[in-house]
Every structure is written in C-alpha cells, then in structure tokens.
Amino acid sequence: MFRPIAKIVSLLLFVFCVSINAQDEDAAKTLLGKAMPEVAVQDFDAKSVKLTQFKGKATIITFWATWCSPCIKEMPHFSKLVEDYQGKLQVLAVAVGDTREDTLNFAKKNPTYKVTWLFDPEEDIEASPVTKAFGIIGLPTNLFIDADGKIVDYWRGLGSTDNLVKKIQGLMAK
Q: Of 1, 56, 106, 107, which has fewest CB within 10 angstroms of its CB?
C-alpha cells in the first residue's frame, strides 16, 4: 500500500532536484574526461558487477527507473543504437531508486531491448554510492564512456530522438 506513495515522493524529489542546474553542471564538470568510478551494481542474479568491467567498447550508461516515463521512452532508442552499431556500442541500463523485482519484471516484459539490465541494490537514492559517484540528481541521467573507460559526455533528461541519435553518432565518430 505504501509502495506507490514512496515512488511518488521519490519522483517529486527527483523532479525538484532536476531544477537545480548548478548541481547538474558540477556533476558533469567533475566527471567529464575522468575514468569511470569504481562502483558496483548487481545483475538479476544479485551478483555484484563493477561498471568498469564493461570497459573495452563504447558504452552508454543510462540511469533510469521503472516509474520514470522519460526513462522508459529512451529505451527503444538506446536498443536501436546498439543494433545500428553492431557490437561497437553497448548500453548499460542501471535502475536506481527502484526494486530488483520491478526492474526484472520490466526487463521480462521488454525482451527485445538490446541493453544490459543492471540495478543499484540500494533503493534509497540519497544513500546510494552509485548515485553519489555519478552525481545523479534526476532521471534519466546518461553517460557516454569511450572504450578506454573515460567519461566523454554526460546528459540528463529525455531530449528528442533525433538529437539523441545525432549525439551518439557524433560521439561514435570520435
């Protein structure tokens, strides 16, 4: 009974935080050009997975939640980009502020999405080492990581599909 209320409160807090542009700019400045932080998330078998283990090919990390409609709208576009770049690009979809069960159910309902499903085991967004390491104050938050594990781009929010595709094409061309 309280679960939907908690999600609404979390969503409202995230919407409020997104309006704080200075924090957003600080997170990007802090991360851009640096190696990806050594933080662990979990796969659906609850095994610990370090995000740095995905180094070796261009990677988009999208921090999302099943209750975030802009996040959901991005998923098919990320999946299409993975298909378009045929093994040269991977997308890690890291659920934050969400339960393992809800994340797993979403992935099972969307088997055609070509993303690697992961989740932050800490459901409390404010206490999460993942959200702290990446400066996540709103969803969706996305990063582009080059094959060497360096953070090349950081953006928040759902933009237009055309802009997303152009952004990724430009980043892949580098």
A: 1
Going from N- to C-terminal start, the domains of the chain cover 3-173
Encode pLDDT of 22-59 as tens digits.
Answer: 455 566 678 999 999 999 999 999 999 999 999 999 99
Strand partners, 118: 94
Please list the alpha-helical segments (H only) found in the chain: 3-18, 21-31, 69-84, 100-109, 129-133, 161-173
154 forms bridges with which residues in the sheet? 143
Q: Which two tokens stand for residue 74?
A: 């991005």
Q: What is the pLDDT of residue 123?
A: 86
**What is the number of alpha carbons within 13 Å of residue 118 lying toward its C-beta?**
23
Q: Nearest 5°: phi and psi at 29?
A: -60, -40
Query: Is residue 45 within 8 Å of residue 166, measured between CB atoms?
Result: no
Helix (H) or strand (E) holding 47: none
Q: What is the per-residue pLDDT across 54-65, written as a single tens digit (0 to 9) for each?
A: 999 999 999 999
CATH class of 3-173: alpha beta
Task: State the chain's mean pLDDT as an integer.
Answer: 87
- State residue 55's pLDDT score: 93
